[in-house]
Amino acid sequence: MRGGWSRDYPKADNDCLIALRRLTHINSPSPLNVVDLDSDHIYDYPWIYAVQVNTWTFTEAEAKRLHDYLLKGGFLMVDDFHGTDDWEHFMAGMRMVLPDATVEDLKDSDEIYHVLYDINEKFQIPSEVYVNTGRTYEKDGYVPKWRAIRNEWRAIRNDHGRIMVAICANMHLGDAWEWADSPQYPEKFSGLAFRIVLNYIMYAMTH
User: Fold this and answer.
1) Cystine design at 83: which of 46, 89, 141, 207 (Cβ 3.0–4.6 Å)?
2) Phi and psi at residue 117, to the nearest 5°
3) Which residues lie across from 170 on neighbouring strands?
4) What is the pLDDT of residue 28?
5) Number of CB atoms found within 10 A of residue 84's CB
6) Residue 168 vs residues 9, 39, 49, 77, 88: alpha-carbon distances, Å
7) What do you get for the CA distance between the two ends of the chain, in Å?
8) Which long-range contacts (C-beta less than 8 Å, at least 24 apart) are formed by 113-117?
9) For residue 56, which of 165, 152, 205 has the smallest C-alpha distance?
């Protein structure tokens, strides 16, 4: 039975794959693949994407498999969770997987923002809520414009400095992909969302 993970599935995922095939030389498989943490098939994929991670939790076996996947070189991108409470629930799940993980704010100069596109300016990418409200944030996930380092863009690295978890907090890149063909949703949000994910995938494949 589907849960929060399937909120934008499959359109957002398909639109992301279309961009990947058009704009890179990565030979991605045709069908979408839903990763099951109950299976070792997770090791077949160098990059995985999870949404609404404020609702996730793991059995001991699932936590260990995701832990092993990440330490063996896998890459996890998380998206679509907003505000203080969502962050705490996300981190509770993350600590089941990586108990000693340290979360850091990413900077524009980090290599992950220069492997395919040079991304020197980032901003909050809103969900479809923006279409009717003009708001770029949900819940208390507002990020003041005066902050020098915008903490929507975070990461967890392994002991060698490689990013293994890319955290898109207070944003919804999946909606930006899904709404990319709508004239009501600004291109600047979709354009950045595609550049971000393609950089993340390229980084995952080359590091």
Assistant:
1) 141
2) -105, 145
3) none
4) 78
5) 10
6) 18, 26, 11, 8, 14
7) 34
8) 113/199, 114/199, 115/199, 115/202, 115/203, 115/206, 116/24, 116/195, 116/198, 116/199, 116/202, 117/195, 117/198, 117/199
9) 165
- The whole-angstrom separation of Cα 14 and Cα 27 is 15
Question: Can you give the chain as a three-state secondary structure string?
Answer: CCCHHHCCCCHHHHHHHHHHHHHCCCCCCCCCCCCCCCCHHHHHCCEEEEECHHHCCCCHHHHHHHHHHHHCCCEEEEECECHHHHHHHHHHHHHHHCCCCCEEECCCCCHHHCCCCCCCCCCCCCCCHHHHHCCCCCCCCCCCCCCCCCCCEEEEECCCCCEEEEEECCECHHHHHHCCCCCCCCHHHHHHHHHHHHHHHHHHHHC
* pLDDT of the chain, 207 residues: tens digit per residue: 344 555 566 888 889 999 999 999 988 766 778 888 999 999 999 999 999 999 999 999 999 999 999 999 999 999 999 999 999 999 999 999 999 999 999 999 999 999 999 999 999 999 898 888 888 878 877 665 444 344 689 999 999 999 999 999 999 999 999 999 999 999 999 999 999 999 999 999 999
Q: Tokens 């999946």 identify what position?
A: 174
